[in-house]
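Per reviewer request, we include the raw input and output of the structure prediction for the construct analysed in the revised manuscript.
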Amino acid sequence: MPAWILQAHLPMFERSKRLATILRVFARYRLLALLPPDYQKPWLTALFACVRPVAPDAARGERLRLALEELGPIFVKFGQLLSTRPDLMPPDICSSLNKLQDQVAPFPGAQFIALVEQSLGQPIDALFAEFSAEPLASASIAQVHTGRLKSGEQVVIKAVRPGIEQTIHSDLKLMLLLARWVAALNSDGKRLKPVEVVEEYHNTILDELDLMREAANAAQLKRNFTPARQLYVPTMHWDYCRSNVLVMERIWGVQVTDIKGLNAAGVDLKTLAELGVEIFFTQVFDHNFFHADMHPGNVYVSTDRPRTPHYIALDMAIMGSLTREDQYYLARNLLAMFRRDYRQVAELHVVSGWVPKNTSVAAFESAIRSVCEPIFAKPLKDISFGQALISLFQTARRFNMEIQPQLVLLQKTLLNIEGLGRQLYPELDLWATAHPFLERWVQRRYHPKTLWKELKRQAPDWLEQLPTLPQLSLDALHSAKTLAAMAPDVQQLAKTLERRERTRPWRAAAALLCGAGLMALALRLGGSFGLGDWLALSLGFIGVVVALVCR
């Protein structure tokens, strides 16, 4: 085969080879068993059975985790996304996927230096007083090294892996192909929403490729918590930030899951756990800008004040926010749910538009009660706040609630915060911290000071529109007069349409009579007229009369 033909078809060959690898891995780990029985077609089962199995006795979630790790970093991050979707994945699979580690072999330091120099337009020695060629951390999307600026600040330098965007697009195309297969294998395929999940992952991972977005998110989050010291966010050095390179302040702390390290530093774990809950609700309701990727690798604890510790947040690539309406309805839903006022929960879902307006409130209330009563039969400290919210949304989905991406991010973040809090302090009562916060927030929403603040915020827009109000009023009056003048014509048109609707059967009969007459006449065209011809003409004449009368 000529070289130019081979080169032209190389992308197709590579994709086919990669797809074959994916299917072989799926077969080796017997991942077909993860699908419902209706999806397990005999031909597909026979095909998978031809491949020698790996870890056949392992649990299904463990087999999926091992398969994703074997397929590489893009699939690992996809598994991490699935672990945050308990609304789609069973609990045992979510638990296994939570163990996925986003750590891959580093690329060479020389390549990292070349990438930084190309992006920042200067030699590495001119940019930094010190630079470590050994990576501090290496993940699927980016790699991090340490250094020191000429001005003396200790920094970390983060750069996107070279060529990763092409790999992402290639693997995502194959994921989308597989998702469409899963959706097509059964008429119920849309229920699992495989295509939507892959598209959501596509948007999420592309956001992580833009380090300028991450730097801007970090700056906003830092501003939200200044001067408060509940959460510390590293400072961005904007002169050294590009879309594929980010330079920020280096921080020192103890990873939030290092319980031994925290105890050795004398940190008050109960205070730390409750502070995490407070930070979450402050971000969601007060700031309306929350860190949506708060897994343990992104959360550290400062130990310089062990009795009043504070958190350090890293990796702000994925952030979430809610509309003002969603904030309000979410707060009231949580309060009503924990008061076991299921009627109000159902009504709030309808009023907010989360479920269709024609939803039966009584039926929805009954469904919510059947799900929530077993949860709230436990002591409050043993209730999973995140799981309760997920159960509520799962029930709502049966009533055609479309889960919004921001609410999914909220669920994910709440589960992470709750998991971290219970790791730090197993007796953590999330509700004891959340309840007074939500009560205060709902009260403040309609406090005169809040209303005055909102009035001042909207006043410039209203003042801008004020000079146009007279003309708008005149236009409205003119439009009203025009409509009033048209009213008789509209009424006449409505009567005409109503009459035509009533006479439609007669017009149809007239058309049939005309048609019958013309057909009979055509059959005898050219011959002498007989009784049948006169009958055909009579039918046609009657049809014309009926059509004229029933116009």
